[in-house]
Amino acid sequence: MSSSYFGASGPDPISRQSPAAVRFQRKVSTGSAPTVPPPAVPPPESSADEEEPRASSNNNYSSTSTVAAPTREPTRVSTLKREEKEKKQKERMERERRELEEKRVQEDEMKKEEHNHTVHPSLGERTSYVEEPPSTTTTLDRRDRKAEKALVRRITNEMQMATYVQQIDLSTVKQPVGAYTQGVFRIRMLRFAEAILRRTFWALGKFIANHKIVSILVALLCFATAFILPTLHKEHLYIDLPFSHILGSDSDVISNGIGISPKMQEFNSSNPAFSCMKWRDSNRFAVLLRTMASRDTILRKDAVLAYTALKKKLDHFPVEKREFMTQCSLECETDKDMVDRIIKKSPQVALTYPETFVSMSKDSTNLTRVYLGAAIGGVETDTDGAISKATSLLMNFELKDDLTGKEHNSWHRHFEDQTRLTAASNISLMSWSPETFKDTVVASLKDQYWCLQFCVIILFVFCFLGSFGINAYQSKPCLGIMIFITLVVGSITGLSMQFYRDLPVDPLVYPICFVTIGIGLLWLFQLQFSWSRYSSAAVHPTEKIAFILAHDAPGIAASAVVIVLTFLAMGAAIQNGHMVSSFLGIASSVAILLVFTVFFISVFVFIGGSREARGVKWYQIFKTGDTHFTAPQLASFDSASLFSLHDRLLDARPCASRAVGAFVISPKIRYPIIMLCTAYVFFAIYGFYNTGIDIKEEYFLPAGSSEKSFIEQYRDQFGKTTQFVELTIESSIEYHDHEVQNNIFDIMDFAIAEGYATRAVNWLAEFAKFEKASIYDVNPDTFVPVVNLVFLPSETYRKYTSDIVMDRFQTQIIKSRMYLELTAKGFAERTSFVDTILKKAAAKGIPLSVDIPSSMSLRHDISVFTSGMLAFGVAIVMLFFVSLLLLGQPALTVMLLITSIAVLGETVGYAYFWSVPMNIVTLTMALAGNALTCVIVIAFCYSYSMSGKSQIRAGVRIQYTFQATLVPVLFACIVPVLTFLPLLYVDVPVVNHLFKIVVLNATASLIHYLFFLPNMMLAFSERFGFSCTSFQCAELCCDMDDESSIYYIPTGGRAIHPEGLYHHPSYTYTVPKPLMNAPPPHYLAIAAPPVNSIYGQTEYTSRGEMKRVSRRNRRHSESSIGETENDGTPGRDRESRRRRQRRAVSRDSEIYEDLPSPRAVNSSRSTSPRRQQPGSMRRPNNHHSGSQNPRPQAFHYDEGAQWRPYVQPSPYMFYPGPVYGQQQRR
Q: In Å, how far are 66, 533, 990, 1066 from 1154, measured between CA atoms?
């Protein structure tokens, strides 16, 4: 027969009374250590499986223990009768044990219980829901067999606790290096917002658990409001060109605001030498003929004939009429006809380039200068300047603005037909039509929206697979589907906010959906993983969802409020339509995500967690499971109890995420990280400094489209003649004044001297030369007549006719323009160049405006950087004030601002190395991606600050933070990138640019999360741990009082966490403050067991042979050894039941329920420390045979002193419980 837990002749586990439970008490900030040193912990005893010699050898335990092991004195009377009696007693005990075992097996089979009490799961299994000891209330009216089963479980709990206590060796406990580092400081007066959120979420958690359908309906109702704006503007539900949203409707001419008249007269025509194709003009058409062979020339007879024939057919539509074409001045029309004639004669005559001289008639000897640079491209000249080879011919058509839609469509059809029919050998013909350009862009946008369907499929697959756990109990695919639905709802809500304006859909707003997806994945999976993270003890699902929302949701809500207010302010501060739509979309999508997180996802988290608690696998749809949960403990919200519950529920076992957190802050890797991060930031700064603003029409066209080929060929053949700046003096000035003339010349010379321009074309400079060589007297009265009547009509200067506008009386120049031919530097740095010359003109009092026709939108180029910096500046201010107001953590605010600035700079900087131009689309995406960065930083810092009191070191807090946020952050940074991949099927440059911005932003955010944030937080905690008492600051980890202590008896075979035992609602015991003594620093309290709950003191005897022991004797015989017989009479059972009912009313007196008919046993030694009640005397029980255990010296104290022993917490360990099958049972 195997030995019992208490020795060779020890008691049966059913009847022995419990050893001392372990009570863990929070350290208090004031008070002194007790005068009596803490007791040593008894050594490990033998288990029930060991033999008798093994049990007897336990007396030789470690010398570190101060409790002397009691030795059994030899039996005084040893007779054959006594030996026979003991033998019969043992046989009867064995027989009763077998009967009880058979009865228990039968009951288990009848009830079809899933878990066998004799088998204990490992840590990798469902440790969160191992059956806990029933509470006092639920066991009062049970039958005897259930009481005996409860006793078995209680004995197992006691054995597990005893094993844990005995494993602690005070001599080997060392104080950890860097222990008790300062945590995150908080401004106490700003904690009201978080306190309100926490209390609100506690109430919402209880409401959600009890009213699931109502919560879901509230979320759906909020989502329904997102359809109000689309319903009111349903006539705009179509995709059109995005340029009105991106570039705005204002003119691209930039002025310095001096003397500008809103109704200024326009120029008669454009200067032929300075004309450029306007791609977004709906009245501009063009045809380009180009040679297929690079060595061939376009100026040959068949090509010229094809050119002239096509131009004649298009010019004279309808037949023999030119009513559709724009008519310019007589000189302009003459020049156009002359160009056509020269091209027609070009195979026969030699032509100079870019200007040639021809006679206007056969009889005239005067030569006229004609500009050919706008019609002939790809020209190579010889030493005399004559054209040796030309590769392209261009014809432009400009329709009238007053054409009807029917006339415009008629012209377009005629244009398409003629260009399709015209052909020539070895000649490629390309046409440009604004209608075709629009159709191509819109088709590419529609393709992008079609590809979004595949993005949704990828997101669904990830959410579904990401919801599976390590086993079928922790897998929640239904929750994954609901997460997918929530992300789709948030994206739709963000897209619907663009209808705040009475404009068509902004088709390039959809990239904000990927930011929404990242934020949603972080929040929703963080909420899902919280259920499994707080699984160290069983707790009622309703209380658990309320706890999760109250503890973790305030951080989510605070970050949501920060993002919503920040992006609303950004949208209100700027004027660009695309930016405003994107920022309002981010704000609305984050707001609906918060609503669905609280009212929708929490419901399914609760349902999935309840099914897991009931022991139901995810595919067992119609199975109910075990619905006997532990009773809820916290009837009302209590902050101290909430944080204590966190420490007891936290599963702090080693895991991969904690290992990552420990790795990134380890001293060995810290300095290499600093070096790599420094290089990373340095290259980002270099790229940010050198990045440029650029936007082109071809960014919105597919790679294989004919329109993109036309634009590229045009820039290649005529690009050198189209890169110029048009400077316009917008009002009348004193042109005859030499000082004014010198000011204008200084502006021109500055551009040439700084390398922005190669030459200046200025009619005023030519007139100054003309004035010096002229015989006319030029004064203020004769200046305008000389210019109008003498200067402009001359053959040399007639090319400036279109650059000067006179008033109706021809007495004053009210408008004029000049030109600067740009260099590559000037075009690349056009924004700074234009800003400089406008400032110079304003300083000199010249009303100047600037335009660069070759740029898609000069106003965009000038304003995009200003708008972006204004929006980001507003964001920084809002992040500072709102985050500090809601969370009250200066360290969080500082890290939030630093990370936001760094991530945006790194995104823009590395976009330069990846050939991504900065424009309104890419910069808006970078600013929108900053929302994900802010959410990651807030999640990191909030988790660090809420790590609890058990995380005493900064390194351990960072490990806790990685445990709480690493996997959700990886999902938030990686999944949006993977989801974006189907859009790359649409080979449009703007899609590639957006994808690169998403990748850069996600990479920068992840790098900061992994390397910057942990070490910055470590520096704030250890290196810069300053005091801020002037701000009424307090350390979060120490500023919450917890005056309650928790008795807990863990289930056998489960992990025991030394720094915070699991909270069981049936064993809460609050000690009044006057009875509490201050413990030694860094010690946890071990309380003695309640005086009325003593098991395992006397030897096991049968029910009929036991003698009744009075309550007084039982109260004063905790350490006595002897035989006690007690008869379980009905009267005593009623008395015991009434006593248990009285104890159930007052939990503060004791926490153990008195089991029916406790047996007194003879124990060889005490298994746990005991303490004596103040003023009581412990006397040996004289009527029992056997020796008495001496009182341990470690428990001697002065009379009346409230003393508690303390032990130093040890590292997290797991000690397996005993095996029940081999123990004796009644």
A: 31, 34, 76, 14
